[in-house]
Model the fold of this input.
Amino acid sequence: MDILTNLGFSNYIKWSGIATIALFLLTILAFILGWGIRFRLVGISSFMAVLTGGLFGLGLGLFTRTEIPGAVRFSRVYDNGANQVVIAVAPTISESELEATLKQAANNYFSYGRAAMGDDNKLTIRVRALIHPEPGLSEPLYLGQVKRSLVMRDDQNLQIEINQESLAKLEKNQS
Done:
């Protein structure tokens, strides 16, 4: 199910467009009949046009998320706005879930607005989990990373690296 239909976003755009057209027609009528509020109607109509344009723009690009089966929830811990992102996952993640989550994050954090830094023009997303080997002690484990192109939206050459030592340590910590 599309998130735009869930939010009723297309209905908001449609009704905002109808209201904008109706207000512009009312403004034209006000100028023809010489009403005193005609200049106020120009401002209201213009504001509605800007609002409708903004809603339309949000409808085009706000919700472009693809779901990868098997991916788990993650949260962004660090993002330099250019070519590096760090996400955190639960310490109960499996290797297959980790790979799917890396693909999901690579898709979610792609943006044409990210600046290419460095020589490779790649977005690097690292995954970490926190374990607690002793009470009161937290240790971050870097489980892997994915590198993707900063310029191509549909990059088929994702470079996924999974740290097997950290995964083994994570499994050991769970038992």
